[in-house]
Specification:
single chain; nine-stranded mixed beta sheet; 19 strands; alpha/beta; Protein-Tyrosine Phosphatase, Chain A
């Protein structure tokens, strides 16, 4: 069964699926003056896309304050707005426009989303980890599509604003919901799990990431583990048995624990083939029930994603044949190790994001893919690495030198990556430092030969997708 196309955040929900103003007031503990029986047409945090009859939730940040737009959304026909207690009401609001006062609009948004989640009863999955969250989410959704309609996190709606927006899309037709949970500081995963109340929680792995706010990798692990502590009695914690930081995370009494891994675990993979341009194969072991799987994916890290998705689906009672079909139907997407042939060369666009763990996985995969052919590797900086960023980029250079025939570097920390590559034995003439995306791409285009593999990767803020796109446009013209 094909999962229906999801609506964008801020679009309307049908009236039967949303709340009255009075219900909202009770959920968030707000005092109400006005018509409490009016049914809201939906909820929005974006004043630009507000629709008549919706509730506006003004959020605040370092460089913006949504309260500045309350008057504008009222003029567009919004029915009501939340407002924090210290906001001064302008005298020009329409007489029938309702203000609901709260201490914190972001928390109120989550409370409303939690109430929406409780009105519906899909099988609720949540996935977190340093790497592979989106790939695992998409693999699990591909499996679950075989049992009926469901909902999955769209785009990057995996935070304290985006996840509530996904829950507002829930309706009675959804048999399952797969939510991705991201974080940048302690407590965020806990709050996301409090809002969504997942029955099955998956922790994939822990690598150095967001160290500017987290301090060290042990703190990252503890923050990811907040998900498991929110799983209710009778739920399932799905954990990576091959990651010692993940396997050591506690889960509550009464929560079943299912492990996955290549070297160990309840759900395992064996006979993993080297990846080729068509993908790779492995044997999936579901508690002794073995199945040969052929997937359009590349590298050991994607096998872990497949195992996590299979373990979560299996824990929910999904039949093995549906699990296998869902994995084999999965297709890589959206700058996550997407391989495409361009007139005799192979471009691997893995530019969505990067940290030390995902860099190592991508380099390992490209090393397996290239075989006796050449790999041209373009790397942007890894961001938010904290005080050890120079050491991590130096180590990245050493890793890259073992795979890349030519290495192209972009970013403020590229000198550290270059130093590591040179110390590992890379010839200086095979190392190119670029001052722009176009310069990097043009160097690659000048150097490329038939049969070469090109890997493009970096943190999202480095916008390395611009390198991939320029190569795609120029080389794709033939």
């Amino acid at each position: 069964m094909i999962v229906r196309k999801l609506r964008r955040l801020s679009n309307k929900v049908t009236k039967r699926d949303f709340f009255t103003i009075g219900e909202i007031a009770r959920i968030i503990g707000a005092t109400l003056k006005g018509n409490s029986d009016a049914v809201l047409a939906g909820i929005s945090t974006d004043s630009r896309s507000i629709s008549p009859g919706q509730l506006f939730v003004p959020l605040t940040g370092e460089n913006f304050n949504g309260h500045d737009f309350i008057q504008a959304v009222a003029a567009k026909g919004a029915a009501a707005s939340l407002a924090e207690s210290d906001w001064s009401t302008p005298v020009t609001l329409p007489q029938n426009f309702i203000i609901l006062r709260v201490a914190d609009t972001l928390r109120a948004l989550g409370d409303i989303a939690a109430a929406q989640r409780k009105r519906h009863h899909p099988k609720m999955f949540a996935i977190t980890g340093s790497n592979g969250k989106t790939t695992t989410k998409e693999m699990l959704a591909s499996i679950l599509a075989g049992i009926g309609a469901g909902l999955k996190t769209e785009g990057n709606l995996n935070n304290l604003v985006g996840l509530p927006g996904m829950l507002f899309r829930l309706n009675s037709q959804h048999r399952w919901c797969v939510l991705e949970m991201g974080m940048s500081k302690p407590g965020e995963i806990d709050r996301l799990a409090e809002i969504s109340f997942p029955e099955i929680g998956v922790v994939l792995n822990v690598f150095p990431a967001h160290l500017e706010s987290m301090g060290n990798v042990e703190n990252v692990a503890k923050a990811k583990g907040e998900l498991l502590l929110r799983i209710p009695d009778g739920g399932v914690a799905v954990v990576n048995a091959d990651d010692p930081l993940v396997s050591a995370l506690p889960s509550p009494k009464g929560v079943e624990r299912v492990t996955f891994g290549i070297d160990s675990g309840d759900i395992r993979a064996s006979d993993i083939s080297p990846p080729g341009v068509a993908g790779q194969t492995f044997t999936l072991d579901l508690h002794g029930d073995r199945h040969k799987i052929a997937m359009k994916t590349y590298g050991r890290h994607t096998v872990y994603s497949a195992l996590a998705a299979a373990a979560a689906a299996f824990a929910a009672g999904t039949p093995p044949e549906i699990i296998c079909a869902g994995l084999e139907n999965f297709v890589l997407f959206d700058r996550r190790f997407c391989l495409e042939e361009l007139n005799g060369v192979f471009l691997v666009d893995d530019s969505y994001n990067a940290n030390p763990g995902s860099m190592k996985a991508a380099l390992s995969a490209i090393g397996e893919l290239k075989g006796s052919r050449r790999a041209l590797v373009a790397l942007g900086d890894m961001l938010e690495m904290g005080g050890n960023e120079r050491k991590m980029h130096h180590a990245l250079g050493i890793e890259a030198a073992s795979v890349a025939n030519r290495l192209y570097l972009y970013g403020e920390l590229s000198s550290e990556t270059a130093r590591g590559a040179l110390e590992a034995g890379m010839n200086s003439e095979d190392l190119i430092m670029g001052g722009s995306h176009a310069e990097i791409a043009d160097h690659i285009l000048a150097d490329i030969e038939d049969g070469d593999f090109i890997l493009v990767k970096g943190s999202r803020g480095m916008k390395m997708d611009k390198v991939a796109q320029r190569i795609r446009e120029r080389k794709g013209r033939g």
